[in-house]
Design brief:
- With 247 residues, the chain is of the alpha/beta class.
- The chain has one domain: 3-Layer(aba) Sandwich (Rossmann fold).
- Strands 5-4-3-6-7-8-9 form a seven-stranded parallel beta sheet, with helices on both faces. It has a two-stranded antiparallel ribbon with strand order 1-2.
- Helix 3 runs parallel beside helix 5.
Length: 247
């Protein structure tokens, strides 16, 4: 159900008053997701290594978090619980991207890509799921990529593998936690207009809708999957790509 607030913004059901935590929320897609959840009434924790600029709403809170460090993750979500309450909506967005030919991908680069993009999501989900299970409610949305389906278009093996892992992780959580009122889904964006597309923006001519995606396109999909009305959708990998990949 969609209603209208006094400010005329449409309000998505089941968001207002919920505690949301968004990783990688300082900029780009994560910032857009966190801001949109806040606009719809969520109490939002912005988790990142560095503080995002201009947080002004009283329902917003920056909490420093290194998603690759189990202690940092535990500390961050303990802060969320202390200041806002138990996490009800988790958005696993923190990620890195690097274009490297397979033969030039070092083990260090491979490990770092997996730690940030995949292990970070695992640690965050593992930290919040017991509370969600106890409450009988939860929404987890993890940001994957079309590269997780295809392996990527240009020299992105490590990135593609990490995002394929995100898709599988979302499905595994969905299967195990569906009986407890918890949904888990992933998004598979492609060619979103952020710093990450530097060097591959020339692929825009392969997008049927004729433009790069915007962070708001991804944020709106997150908002939909976080809503009460999406309670029958779980284990899905939703494309957000303007027709770049139709599978």
């Amino acid at each position: 159900m969609v209603t209208s607030s006094e400010s005329s913004h449409p309000i998505i059901d089941g968001i207002a008053g919920r505690v949301a935590a968004v990783t990688g929320a300082a900029r780009g897609i994560g910032r857009e997701v966190a801001d949109l959840l806040t606009k719809h009434g969520a109490l939002t924790a912005y988790l990142d290594l560095s503080e995002p600029p201009e947080l002004t709403a009283p329902t917003e809170r920056f909490i420093q978090c290194d998603v690759t460090d189990p202690q940092s993750v535990d500390n961050a979500f303990s802060m969320v619980e202390r200041h806002l309450g138990p996490t009800e909506i988790l958005v696993n967005n923190a990620g890195i991207f690097e274009i490297l030919p397979f033969a030039e991908t070092s083990l260090e680069t491979w490990d770092r890509m997996l730690r940030v993009n995949l292990t970070g999501a695992f640690l965050c989900a593992q930290r919040v799921l017991p509370g969600m299970r106890e409450a009988g409610y939860g929404r987890i949305v993890s940001i994957g990529s079309s590269a997780g389906k295809t392996g990527g278009s240009k020299n992105t093996a490590a990135y593609g593998v990490s995002k394929a892992g995100i898709h599988a992780l979302a499905k595994a959580i969905a299967t195990e936690y569906a009986p407890y009122g918890i949904t888990s889904n992933a998004l598979a964006p492609a060619l979103i207009n952020t710093d990450m597309v530097t060097g591959i923006a020339d692929l825009v001519d392969r997008i049927p809708v004729g433009r790069l995606g915007e962070p708001t396109d991804v944020a709106r999909a997150v908002l939909f999957l976080s809503a009460e009305s999406a309670s029958f959708i779980t284990g899905e990998v939703m494309d957000v790509n303007g027709g770049f990949l139709i599978d």
